[in-house]
Amino acid sequence: MADRDDAPLADPVPPSPAEPAKTAPPRRARPRWLTIVLRVLLGILVAIFLVWAILFVTKGRFLKHTFEKIASSSTERQVRVAGDFQFYFNPINLKFLAEGITVSNPAWAGGGNFFEAKKLDSSTATLTFLFGKRRINWVALDGARVDLAWDADHRRNSWTFGDPNAKGEPFDMPVVRQAAVTNSGLRYSDPSMRLLANLRFHTVEAKDTKFASAIRFDGDGRARGTPFTLTGALLSPDATLAGGRTQLALTVRAVDTVATVSGTLPEPTVLEGADLNLDVRGRNLANLFLAAGMTVPDTRRYHLASALTKDGEEWRFTKLKGTFGDSDLAGRFSVFQREPRMLLTADIATRRLDIVDAAPFIGYNPDKVATQGKAGAVTQVAGRPRLLPDTPLNVDALKNFDAKVEWTVQQVRSKNVPVSNIRLGLSLEDRLLKLSPLNFTMARGSVRSDISINARRSPVFTDYDIRLTPTPMGRLLAGFGVAEAGTSGTVSGRVKMTGSGNSVHDSLASANGRIAFIMPKGSFWTRNVQLSEIDVGTFVQKMFEDKLKEPVQINCGLIGFTVRNGVAAADPILIDTQKNVMLGRGGFSFKTEAIDLAFRADSKKFSVFAGQSPVGINGYFAKPGFDVISPELVGRAGVGLGLAAVATPVGGLLAFVDVGDAKAAACGPVLAGATAKAQRTTKGKPRDDVGQGTTSKEEDGKASGEEKKTQRKKFLGIF
Asked: How far is 635 from 404, CA to CA, in rounded Å?
């Protein structure tokens, strides 16, 4: 045993030279700056986690007073939370709960609260809350009240926080994905628009992450003095926190107007990109636009439908189609909400426009015209009939918006006015209204107009420029006894005037300018009486010889008036025919609408039975009269009877003989539309039978009795 214990140990086996010993590679040192960064990031993550943990455990209740202080300072409003307060991450989204929260109104609003709620409970996406558009995943409100208000100058509003004197910003509604609202309401007021609305939200219950029922609401208010009510609902029973489009159903009623809006919204509180349909009907379309602060002509009962969407500050009404009265309407229009005035743009078309529906465009009541016909356009003023409309332009409404409108009409339904192919270009900029062009086809001719209505001045100042291109008289006057067959004459004309007044009547009653209608060479034929050949002897002779169907051959003609302060005086009326020269004197008044015109035809050839008596047109625009048996004719008949008594019956005829000394007219000045002073005979001599382009003083009641007698003698008893 001892020998075994004392035996020497065997030598270790040396390593094989073919397998050298393995050594670990040296470790590469980490840069110091990277170590610092990692430690900082780790510290931040730990701090965030600690903050999250503290907030999650405490629910952030200890931040209540800090929240009130910061919110009050940043909004420059008093923000208070009377009850429970929670603010924490749950787990990523921001959870906010406040009971008895109030946010005061700015001082100019007169006190009260901009927002208050018994309970506000919400979950908001953290990143969008901090860096982008606010997106609230869900919100629960109980006993909430919101007061949205503009000041009287429409410069400040209650939802623009910070400096209370800062210009109000447009309302920016946060995106709300889902909501539960109970016992809550909203108030909106804008004194400058005379708009007040109150909304009440019905109780809405939520179940899990889905709506158990729709969000329903109703309300009432007044728009520019017109009361209205509304009811509606957000129909999203299947909308989840993942989002989805929301169905909207809204009905608004005001007086005789009912408007319904239906379709889908991208989010319950997002109108941008909405796909909606509008259906509106009522008694007068003007009432609807007036409630929005804009003015359009009155209409009869209407029904319109269109697609509706919102793009930025622009509301677009497309695929418009409907009727007003017995006329149709189609096209599109938009309303752009901008400062300082809204902009209305429209491109609309009408296939058939009933003449009754066009009555309001110049100030007539379409309902009266529809039921009473022509009599519906006439009113009685101081015992005299008035035809020119006296409806004033709504200048106040023109202050609220600008407009650019294109309107085309294919055909006008009318018995006596052959009008078609209307094209209207309307522009309104800061109360300057221009109808340019206002063109239409009339009896194979065309009327081209440029009318400027300047409501920047008081009273309104209007510039009229209306031009009639050569138009066949046969078709133009077909409804007034003129036959197309046998009438080859044409007429062209121009009305160039300016006037001041807020209605058509007042504007024309103060007008100054010129009216002229020119007839070049052609023929003229009427079914009943040759109005261009007023010579009574010629008419009787033709009647006995059965030559009523023989057209009158016109060489040239001019019916011209100079208008001064609303009174139009013949300047001149001169029509040269193959056998006669027709002259006219007198005029008419836009002020009283009285007419006092006299026409006579002097024969170029010897004529027996020539009464040489003028035919008078008198009365008023609404009720003109004709005076064929004038004092001159009665006097001449008396002379004839006297001659027949003391001489022979043949001698009595001498009182009715026309020696045929009428002076033919030089057609150059006539066709140029020149005034009476520029008219000449064919021999180049000034005419002394066409007046001086003025009416007598008799119209103003300034002439004495003797002066009136002298004036009547000057032109055949009229004027």
From this structure: 62
Give 582's contacts (C-beta < 8 A, 6+ positions apart): 532, 533, 534, 557, 573, 574, 575, 576, 599, 600, 601, 602
**DSSP code, position 290:** H
* 38-45 long-range contacts, CB within 8 A, separation 24+: none
The answer, yes or no, to whether residue 216 has pLDDT greater than 50, is yes
Answer yes or no: are the C-beta atoms of 231 and 217 closer than 8 Å: yes
CA atoms within 13 A on the CB side of 656: 24
Would you list the domain boundaries of the chain?
49-243
367: how many CB neighbours lie within 10 A of its CB?
19
Phi, psi values for residue 622, rounded to 5°: -75, -20
Of 333, 320, 324, 323, the residue nearest 284 (C-alpha):
324
DSSP conformation class of 242 = T
- Is residue 156 within 8 Å of 108, Cβ to Cβ? yes
Tokens of 34: 């990277």
Q: Which residues contact 406 (CB under 8 A, 6 or more apart)?
A: 346, 347, 348, 424, 425, 426
Per-residue pLDDT band for 205 (boundaries 50, 70, 90) equals low
- What are the pLDDT digits (tens) for 159-172? 999 888 888 887 77
Tokens of 517: 């209608």
CA separation, residue 417 to residues 300, 361, 505, 709 (Å) = 21, 16, 22, 40
**Cα-to-chain-centroid distance, residue 696:** 43
CA separation for the pair 50, 556 (Å, rounded):
104
Q: Which residues lie across from 187 on neighbouring strands? A: 147, 198
Vertex 266 angle, CA 260 and 138, to 5°: 110
Q: How far apart are CA 567 and CA 514, in angstroms?
A: 11
Would you tell me how many other CB atoms lie within 10 Å of the CB of residue 419?
18
Please write the tens of the pLDDT for every residue from 40-76. 888 888 877 887 888 888 898 999 999 999 999 999 9
Q: What length is written for the chain?
A: 719
Say what the pLDDT of residue 524 is: 74
The rounded distance, in Å, linking the Cα atoms of 160 and 415 is 59
Q: Which of 289, 307, 417 has its CA nearest to residue 353?
A: 417
> pLDDT averaged over the chain?
80
User: Using CB atoms within 10 A of its CB, is residue 527 exposed (0-12), middle (13-18) or buried (19+)?
Assistant: exposed
423/441 Cα distance (integer angstroms): 9
Closest among 185, 214, 216 to 198, alpha carbons compared: 185
State residue 434's pLDDT score.
96
The position carrying tokens 């999203």 is 236
Q: If we measure between CA atoms, which residue out of 452, 467, 568 comes closest to residue 510?
A: 568
- pTM, 2 dp: 0.76
Distance between CA atoms of 622 and 590, rounded to whole angstroms? 12
CA trace torsion 641, 645, 650, 655 (10° rounding): -30
Share of the chain above pLDDT 90, in %: 42
Structure tokens at 496: 């160039």
Close Cβ partners of 113 (under 8 Å, ≥ 6 residues apart) = 102, 103, 104, 105, 145, 147
* 374: helix, strand or coil: helix
Distance (Å, whole) CA 89 – CA 608:
114
Beta-strand (E) ranges in 177-214?
A: 179-182, 184-190, 195-201, 206-207, 210-211
Instruction: Using the predicted structure, report yes or no on whether residue 87 has a pLDDT greater than 50.
Output: yes
* CA gap 585, 576 in Å, rounded: 15
SS3 18: coil
Statement: residue 14 has pLDDT above 70: no
| DSSP 3-state of 286 | helix
DSSP H helix total and E strand total for the chain:
14, 37
Structure tokens that stand for 459 in this block: 């009273």
CB within 8 Å of 542: residues ≥ 6 apart = 530, 548, 550
